[in-house]
Amino acid sequence: MDIEGRGGESGTTATTTATRRRFALPVDAENKSTTFRLFSVAKPHMRAFHLSWFQFFCCFVSTFAAPPLLPIIRENLNLTATDIGNAGIASVSGSVFARIVMGTACDLFGPRLASAALTLSTAPAVYFTAGIKSPIGFIMVRFFAGFSLATFVSTQFWMSSMFSGPVVGSANGIAAGWGNLGGGATQLIMPLVFSVIQQMGAAKFTAWRIAFFIPGLFQTFSAFAVLLFGQDLPDGDYWAMHKAGEKEKDKVGKVIKHGITNYRGWITALAYGYCFGVELTIDNIIAEYFFDRFHLDLKTAGIIAASFGLANFFARPGGGILSDLMARRFGMRGRLWSWWIIQTLGGVLCASLGQIDSLTGSIVVMLIFSVFVQASCGLTFGVVPFISRRSLGVISGMTGAGGNVGAVLTQLIFFKGSKYSKETGITLMGIMSIACSLPICLIYFPQWGGMFCGPSSKKVTEEDYYLAEWSSKEKANNLHLGSQKFAETSVSERGRATTHPQT
Amino acid sequence: MAITKLLFASLLICSMIQSSHGATKERLFTDLEKGALEITATPSRTGQGVVLAAGVDKLSITWKVSSTATKEAEFKIIKVKLCYAPVSQVDRPWRKTHNELFKDKSCPHKISSFPYDPTVKTAQSFDYTLERDIPTGTYYVRAYAVDAQDHEVAFGQTTNEAKTADLFSVQAISGRHKSLDIASVCFSVFSVVALLVFFVNEKRKAKIEQSK
User: Fold this and answer.
1) Which regions span the lipid bilayer (chain B) (predicted)?
2) I need a labelling partner for A443 at 20 to 30 A (CA). Which of A39, A348, A360, B91 fits?
3) CATH number for the domain whose boundaries are A41-249
């Protein structure tokens, strides 16, 4: 089969239909793109990229639309600090469950339908924010709107389906990074929208309500764009391929079983809880931290809060790109080492942030810390696509959910009530990050090795590893062919010839 | 090079922030002359359990300089503010009382500000309609006398030192509108129905594909 994908004179394979497919980008055996061209919107690869990051961006804007307007919302609804803390926890806890379910939904229905369904069904929570009248209402809308953060899983799944090994880290990192950007952008967008509406004559307590329609509408229309212009796989949509017999529907139970019994998924979930979880916690508390500790006014504190999130523009993609660069030379071991080092350094910087007394020092350390913690998120998803092929969605979902669990736990232990001052909480969070990054050392792939061990002496191949997820009966029915193709392309994770004994 | 750009930007931000800190850090509330102004605030509706409505009800504020005031010569401007009673400050650190004047957040709502006329010795009054952005809470009124350098020198308040007497309650406007509620419902229904339409369409396309 012609791996350039330029159609032309290539013959058909035994498994695909007679249609020859032309792609604008060079592709591999699974028709996944082997390059990443940022400024292209070519169907289906780059188009999927732009649709998925934009949808995720809109969901992030909606989920974190309330924090920048809190000074007004808290007066309108008579909120206490406890209510605000609970709402912050609620906003990130809803998507723990949603991310796990989304993983399975992507495996079964495809990322296009799964993500658009979630986005459209959580948009009502954003619209109804305009009508809330009590602290309970506030907590409820933040809880339900927060479910939309599960579109992260569909983004990663979709990128892992569209882009091949050598560029998957970059694609995942840029898509997720530009989505996470929404958390920073919203700190600038919402106050701006609010002041425009106020200038048009609305009272303060009405203007913020009207402002929430903007993120709601963007969320709705981004979902439409995904449904109208997106495509699940390079070869087509899941439903078309199911019917044409090209893609077999897999069994839910089996997919879940192979996901949760893979110990690596649990380690990535824990580690992600202490990079992404830290990022979410900081998103919720950092404006208040600068406001209280250094007596800045709300606008200045808001700008600093925004800059933490805006670093995602290059920091998280940088992590993904670094992962791919390390893999080129050192294979999977390079990915693991760089991930562990960057995440541990992020923890060290977090711990020192709490100890610094000067404003200038705090801002500088916070900015460097933001780069390291967001890069570690990118590095995590350089490793995740390789843990399982059959249960890619479940593993992505577990890892993504682990991120939110980390945020919930951290806010509950260190940032609720007045047990710890915020600066002590930040230092302790950094120390916990360092501790929870250690299990990365335990991740071991028999075909490629781990941080401290080389590949297995039993000469395990990529095929052995990925096809172990299928029983011989399933193999007899040719259900394993997707994994087979993936195994072939993942040989690049061995690194350069000199670093792997089998090549 | 991205790192150097980042550090430069942060240095710029820091210098801007440092320069915006005034030299007013040391002035304390306890340094001000207590009771230099005698002030009372009478709500337009009084009685047991009456809650005033923001945007509707009024306060009638009467004030004069006390005979015991010593710094009267420095008074240039009188600033009258609406302040939170302790019960409205519970679990709300953004309304906390601090002794340092620049940090104090207990009196954020400006009622009125006018120049002090030393020739008028009798009590003066004015009416104030509660603004529409006053939050729900329990309040009292405080007047600061400010000198030519815009520093507070004296104050007077409608309640006692423990802030327990002569407090009044305000209920904020809800800010909600029927039109907004209707719009919420419409857009939500639109989103969900659009989703169902897409689903049905996909199933239909799949059936057509299969029958080909």
Assistant:
1) 182-200
2) A348
3) 1.20.1250.20
